[in-house]
Amino acid sequence: MMAGVNMVHVPYRGGGPALSDLLAGQVQIMFPTTVSSIGYIRSGKLRALAVTAAMRSAALPDIPTVAEFVPGYEASNWYGSPGHIAAYDGPEANDLTDVEFV
Known about the structure:
This protein has helices spanning 15-24, 34-43, 83-87. By secondary structure, it is mainly α. The longest helix is centred in the N-terminal third of the chain and has 10 residues, at 15-24. The protein is globular. The protein contains three helices and no strands. The mean pLDDT is 82.
């Protein structure tokens, strides 16, 4: 509630259906990945308000960060799991938040 904005979470079974509903006007806002939305942003079919990372995206340098409007805000995504973690059976395998291990 850093910005005092009240939103309703609408669960989807993936980013594809959510992005389709955003483009169709069924939902008004989404936090999609840059990869899934950049084509729509560049074509003008989707308007990017801000990026959630701490720094502006090199792919979309004209789009501000949320932190430029809401100081202290940052959110980023991490996808995947390296094979050595999935095969590793040590105690660190359960703690994927340990950046030095990952």
